[in-house]
Amino acid sequence: MTLKDATAIVGIGQTAFAKHLPESERALACRAVLAALDDAGIDPGEVDALASYTMEETDEVELAKAVGFGDLTYFSKVGFGGGGSCATVAHLAAAIAAGQATVGVAWRSRKRGSGPRPWTNTSVQLPTPAQWTRPFGLLRPADEIAMLARRYLHEYGATRDHLFNVALACRNRANRNPAAIMYDRPLTREMYMTARWISEPLCLYDNCLETDGALACVIVGRERARDCRRPPVYVHSAAQGLPAQHHGMVNYWNDDPLTGPAWAAARHLWKHADFTPSDVDVAQIYDAFTPLVPLSLEGYGFCDRRRGRRVHRGGRPGDRRTAAPEHRRRRAQRGLRPRIQPHQRRRQATARHQHLPGPRRRHLPRHRRRRRPDVRPAAPQLNAPRSRPTMLTPVPDADGAPFWEYAARGELRVQTCADCDEPRFPPRPCCPHCHSFASEWRATSGRGRIWSYVVPHPPLLPDYAAHAPYVVLLVELADAPRIRLVGNLVSEPGAALGSVPPDRVRIGARVQAVFGADGLPQWVLERP
Length: 528
Fold this sequence. Notes:
Acetyl-CoA acetyltransferase/uncharacterized OB-fold protein, ChsH2_Znr, NA-bd_OB-fold, Thiolase-like
């Protein structure tokens, strides 16, 4: 069985997009799905396959009942959210090509504009794997990506001007779309460079907008596609990918954190395609944060490594290989970890989709507003009084518990395989090298070098906002260079967050582990 051109997208539907929409996520999902089916000329009763996301709040059972689907013979949920968006199409394409279904619908419905941000919910912040990052104030996706961005800037000689060029290319696309939120709001270099920080080195314009809205698409087999209302867009190749030892948004613990999921997905994607990256005219890149664009362009082979920073030089939105999508448009389709390539050789089929309207959103704070007060109430820490918000503390799992027990005694120890002597982090039940389940916790010198760092700014959880801006480090241990730990830079053991000015920090600086009264590892500069 092959997926190559065996299925096609035959309908697309979306709701209005705005900072606030009155309808529920379920109602928005229903509207988008019905619009997509109408676009395709297919009756809802013919739908027998669904695909969505683990982060999708609308249950497929409720959607099927509300819209009036027939018997469902296939349904799946893709891990994550935006970064996995294309995988829903891939899942449905595989199911239809295998004969498990005939008409599939993929959808995404969100109320992220008017609803709370996920990072404000401490019940989500605390469990594994967040125990290794969240207590140190690495709270939001912007903070996690900023850590990689800082390293990218340092290692490849990129500057904030390169990130600005990405933001400008995206904004230029919006300025050409009358339905886009940013249609009449040009972006200038001065606006970008004077914008308030979100998480240094990322500013306001390095982050995507959040909206309420939904969209959906319809996938059918090749033969059925010929009889649908619209010209089909064939799914030529599809791939998902997670690199070895990947760890979600914080891809800090593999050998090369700057080679993310795009690299793993690209190898499989191009292997099954009849063309190469040099043949592609239009690429839609997961651009929730500007650094993801150069990283993805390199990963998918649109340019050599280290060259992604140069692609948007001058902010040209129409570069043949790298035309950036108007990333304020379709919230649910920003992901290209799994990648779909219907564009090449089918320009006449894709042209009709270029008129899709973009979301309408309210103004964000003006670029001259350097700081925005944190007005979001934080959800309470688990087992803590609701009236007294506190700093997050780790909620260890069975594998990680010894790390925190030793830390409470002022010792920095790392889990090591008892058979092959390979250290590993984060802790896990067995060794990924020799598969032994025997391990021991070996003491380290507590010395290391700063691999990267970020400086978060509000909005944050209240107790973190009170200390902002503060420094969060990613430290590479001297004893085990492949082991990297997230922690805070402080002036002395037990000092508060923000006790070291950010301008005193540099990548490569030597640091020493110390421990506060709460048992959390902290770091001090060896040469303050």
